[in-house]
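4.2 Preliminary Data

To establish feasibility before requesting continued support, the project team ran the inverse folding procedure on a target of 276 residues. The structure was first converted into the token representation described in Section 3, and no sequence information of any kind was made available to the design step. The complete token record follows.
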């Protein structure tokens, strides 16, 4: 089996896992989709400052899952499109947007097939992140797709969990205490990390059926290198010590409503703005 064939097989396993996660996430208190989806809570204030005005612009949200952030763009006046590889997620996102009374187009496709799936359409803004890049084995290929999706002068905005956060791991291992320990590589290149996806990051019951999940580590240098090789110009890069939910029990609420570790202060999220 070639490396490409292996990656395709693992991405299909991830797709099945996200199909199985979707009903759990739809019913969870974490997303709170039984009422207003409140998409603003998933954005740090600095994201909107970095992006600027989006009203009247064509915005594509890659790997959108339930489309909560996609709705935020539509509510700000953008012509919003969401793309995800999970059929269950796309169906759920369509329903969430309809109940929220916003106009969003959703497309089911692997991100690597986005150019074809979108019929060659180009966008003013491509937005992605908060747990997206780790499911992509090849960032060079991803960056090439992004460049082809953007109009000249268009913006890519990646707001992603910091690779240091991913290296710390989502939870302590068996027999370990609450200390933050490096459990995975910060840098990529060592192949995918296999995770048990029986329980996801939300509340709710166990995932039924497809529980295998695979993630690839990508350092910030790898992300920057892929984008510049694809012809994009990096305009800004920021690091943040806050997350939109408490990943660890010792985290404390901040004035923004998000969460940070009391100590040590480490980057948990980053925002990267690039231009075609």
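Position-by-position output of the design step:
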């Amino acid at each position: 089996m070639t490396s490409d064939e292996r990656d395709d097989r693992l991405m299909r396993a991830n797709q099945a896992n996200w199909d199985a996660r979707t009903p759990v996430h739809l019913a969870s208190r974490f997303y709170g989709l039984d009422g207003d989806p409140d998409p603003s809570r998933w954005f740090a204030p600095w994201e909107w400052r970095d992006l600027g005005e989006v009203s009247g612009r064509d915005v594509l949200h890659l790997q959108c899952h339930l489309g909560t952030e996609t709705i935020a763009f539509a509510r700000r006046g953008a012509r919003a499109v969401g793309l995800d590889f999970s059929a269950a997620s796309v169906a759920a996102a369509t329903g969430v947007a309809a109940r929220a009374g916003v106009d969003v187009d959703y497309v089911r496709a692997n991100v690597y097939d986005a150019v074809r799936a979108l019929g060659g359409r180009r966008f003013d803004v491509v937005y992605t992140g908060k747990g997206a890049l780790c499911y992509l084995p090849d960032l060079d290929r991803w960056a090439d797709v992004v460049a082809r999706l953007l109009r000249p002068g268009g913006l890519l905005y990646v707001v992603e969990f910091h690779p240091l956060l991913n290296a710390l791991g989502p939870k302590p291992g068996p027999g370990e205490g609450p200390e933050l320990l490096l459990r995975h590589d910060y840098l990529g290149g060592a192949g995918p990390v296999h995770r048990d996806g029986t329980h996801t990051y939300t509340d709710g019951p166990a995932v039924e059926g497809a529980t295998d999940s695979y993630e690839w580590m990508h350092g910030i240098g790898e992300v920057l290198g892929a984008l510049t090789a694809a012809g994009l110009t990096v305009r800004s890069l920021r690091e943040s010590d806050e997350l939109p939910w408490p990943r660890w029990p010792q985290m404390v609420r901040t004035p923004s409503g998000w969460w940070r570790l009391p100590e040590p202060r480490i980057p948990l999220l980053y925002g990267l703005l690039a231009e075609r």
